[in-house]
Amino acid sequence: MHLRDPFLAFRPFGVDGDLVRRVLGEATRDGCDDADVFFEHSTSTSVGLSDGAVNRAHTSVDLGCGVRVVVGDQVGYAYTEDLSAEALVRCAATARRIARSASPVALATAWQVAPVRDVHPTQRRWGDVDLDVRIPMVRRWEQDAFARDPRVRRAQCSLGDDEQQILVARADGTVAADFRPMTWGTLSVTVEDGPRRETGTYNVAGRADLAYYDEARHRRIVEQAVDRGIRALDAGSPPAGEMPVVLGAGGSGVLLHEAIGHGLEADFNRRNLSIYSTKLGQRIAGPDITVIDSALVPHVRGSLNIDDEGSPTEETVLVRDGVLEGYLHDRISARHYGTRSTGSGRRESFRSPVLPRMRCTWLAPGPVPPEDIVRSVKRGLYAEVLGGGQVRIGAGDFSFFVRQGWLIEDGRLTRPVKDANLTGNGPEVLRTIELVGNDLVVDEGGWTCGKEGQGVPVSQGLPTVLVGRLSVGGGRT
Amino acid sequence: MNGALAELTDLARALRQRAQALGADEVSVSVSTATHASLRRRDGRTEQSTGATTRGLSVSVLVGDRFTSNSTSDLRPEALEAFLRRCVDAARWLEPDPARRLPEPEVVGRGVSEAHLDSDDPSWATREPVDREAAAEALEQAVAARAGLDRVSIVAAVADGRSASFRTSTNGFEDGSAGTFFSVSGQLVLAEGDKRPTAGADWSARHLTDLPPVERIADEVVERTTWSVGSRPLPSGRYPLLLENRVSARILSMMAAPLSGAALHERRSCLLDRRGTLVASPLLDVVDDPTIPRGSGSRPWDGEGRTARPMPVLRDGVLENWYLSTYHARKLGLPATTGSRSNWVLRPGTRPFAAIAASLPRAVSITSFLGGSANSTTGDFSFGVRGVLLEHGVVTAHLSEMNVTGNLLVMLREVAEIGNDPFTHGAVRTPAMFWPEVQLTGT
Hints:
The complex is a heterodimer of chains A (477) and B (443).
Chain A (H helix, E strand, L loop, with lengths): L5 H5 L6 H11 L6 E17 L2 E19 L2 E7 L4 H11 L16 E2 L17 H18 L3 E19 L3 E20 L2 E11 L8 H20 L6 E7 L6 H8 L4 H5 L20 E4 L20 E6 L2 E2 L6 H7 L7 E2 L8 E2 L3 E4 L6 H6 L3 E13 L5 E13 L2 E14 H6 L1 E4 L4 E2 L4 E5 L2 E9 L2 E8 L5
Parallel strand pairs in A: 4-6, 8-15, 14-21
Antiparallel strand pairs in A: 1-2, 1-5, 2-3, 5-6, 6-7, 8-22, 9-10, 9-14, 10-11, 12-13, 15-16, 16-17, 17-22, 18-22, 19-21, 20-21
Helix pairs in contact in A: 2-3, 4-5
Chain B lengths: L1 H20 L4 E17 L2 E19 L2 E7 L4 H17 L20 H4 L11 H18 L4 E19 L4 E17 L7 E8 L8 H15 L8 E7 L1 H9 L2 H4 L1 H5 L20 E3 L22 E5 L2 E2 L6 H7 L11 E3 L6 H6 L4 E12 L5 E12 L2 E14 H7 L2 E2 L9 E2 L3 E9 L2
Parallel strand pairs in B: 11-16
Antiparallel strand pairs in B: 1-2, 1-4, 2-3, 4-5, 5-6, 7-17, 8-9, 8-11, 9-10, 12-13, 13-14, 14-17, 15-17
Helix pairs in contact in B: 4-5
């Protein structure tokens, strides 16, 4: 649902164009370079199953408005859940404290509604899907999990959705509105075999409606959760120390997210804080490395029609054939670099100021069959199920967690391993990606990226790759 | 602020009654409002200033044995009526779960007075934007005075706020509380070739006057950033590990997940079936104490309204209590304790970090963590770390790109010394802790 009529766009928030203009007038009273108001209404519902019963439900509603005033690269921000005229005007007055004798602003007199391309069209609102449709879905995951292996002792499932309506109005009269659906499903099992006990979890998330849960996805949720738990029963700690690491296709994209993605967010670079700040236009990786951050992958969790400044989104090439081509920009950094926003200005909610963020980050596939990559390794680690990661933007050291993987010996996967943190240095690791597979997979998991205390939904993908050397946090040297 | 909470208090009572009229058998409504502001300076000027007065409402509903929990910030009357109907209607779809109950009336209520907790600093009310600007500027200048010319950037940030909440439940619980917070942080970025070594320090307190002086924070910022320059990994191996008080909190905090009722009920806890047994070194004595004046985890009651009182967690290494809410206690057939952690207080040892460090020919000290995870089912953990190598208490190398790997139960058992210098600015009030041999991975 994408509105072309400003009157309709304002209506869900109980405000009208005149009030929004008044709030922007208040925000820009002392002058500024940019100002916007961001309205958000979101509704989230989830149901949970444990002990064989669908026995909990949660509903949350969030409504509010954030007002931002920008002077150069200085930001004043305020928000309110009270959308009365008095509260909104007070909010604008708080936000404009940053503006001291800045350039005067001429407020636009008419609203222009920005066109929005829908990269995740849906047929049916989650708000129209009754609990009696959702409950059998989680019940099925549970029953299929117990049927899959007798060692499954406990199953927990949850199925949730979040529908967000947003509106951005700018001092120049631009209005952009978007409807953002999201669904997620999680199955977690506890498996036991004698004294050994383990947990297996699988989760999926996407900007989609009920049709997301096709037969194949239902089956994958169950198979992955149970099989991960069972495999963990036999898995040990990998050896400790530096070794070659083969990253399996899919969730291993967390490597890119940490090793380079954050370092290319332009707010760090315009302040000269990133290890990549001085490397624009330089070769930073081998010629077979092309890194893309895109908002346009249909229905994945990180897809985005417009960003939270109302800018159109795109597919942004960050590294092309090994050369650093560009950063991820919001409006502030775009102005700083004299370029346009890449549609990467995002915020967790109306409570948070905008930051340049990733959306769906992946590495373009290369020529090598994945089995050849494993075969090329004498002794190393194969990373299969990934957890989260973290990076230090300035020094470039990063880490990510391997929940499950395999030891590679003489080109073969020999024994399962689990729970090892891997560390390396971003630019060094990029230079040591030795082989790139032909099997790119964008992971379907529910990844959330954290930055300055704000979490935003993201996706990531990777073909199978060989990294020459990472430090593996294993059990014994 | 008090006016805002008074309005919300009336609203909470009205909603409790309305939910009952709509068919709920038991209802708990809580409301909160908060006002906060922050200011961040970078290199001589304000980079970001924020401010908000915020409010929220949450409603838990039992219809028979069917339970829903709900929250909203949309307090428009027509929206609230629709929201409440949804909360109650959703319950009808669910399957009954007899473990869902509000706590019994005799276990809820205030444990300690507001005056004793002293969580609400009256000086907050007079804080103005210029005070934040002055505080941030003072810290920035203190860092600048200590940092070398190779600096790329200095950041100083301050934030403060006051929140107030009120809860009313059909089990008779009804009360409110309020508290303030103040925080200050500094960060220094240096240049080292293409690298921008960055580190900082942050502090928070309930009362403004409990924050350390800017000079001390600036010293810490500069020292920590210096440790980030010229850093490298050590060869992989087993090393003596000595952690400063606020860093050891991270290791001990891993205990929270396997102690939780949810993990025990789902059988994903490495402390399952271990209550009453020796799970840690007899040196480890941990009390959950919600009654510490000005404590960051202090509270008059827990999230269900249960009266706050100290509870032993580990006594001389023996596991005394799990964290059991009403629901998980009933699921497990055990008496409820409390569902969530407040402050953890450890029995102190005899000497501080510096004295322990001086006594060790060689030890690694972690300065910060970088990613990683812990498996609550097995206790296995692996974290990325930065740190320093100490020889007789002197820093002889700066470390990065390393991992620390081990098992929570082994760490609890093998802790060999506990300092006498607890960290009092967080809820986990650990002193320094020392282990003779821990696996570190580097080259």
